[in-house]
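We examine the record.
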Amino acid sequence: MNIYWCLFAMCLLVGFHYAMRFGAKAVERHSGRESSPEKSSTGYDAVFFGLAFAIGIPPIYLLPDVHPFVQSAFSLVGIVIGSLTSQAMFGKRKHA
């Protein structure tokens, strides 16, 4: 494996970490909802997994010859968007 692919993988993971961290803070600031749901919420799970799969799975079938890191990037983007959207819709209300 090329050193550039290793650097790309590390940047992908670091970018995923910071996108989740700062994205959750931004959603909490704008919507007033924390990342955890109030109780076991099927809506929270449905939105999270629905968006994660809707964004992450199609590139595997539509772009079969692309490098696996690119497919992983699509999956991680789907996870970030699904997580932030489900937090904004079904997260626990933050008490002021």
About this structure: The chain has one domain: 3-93. The mean pLDDT is 86.
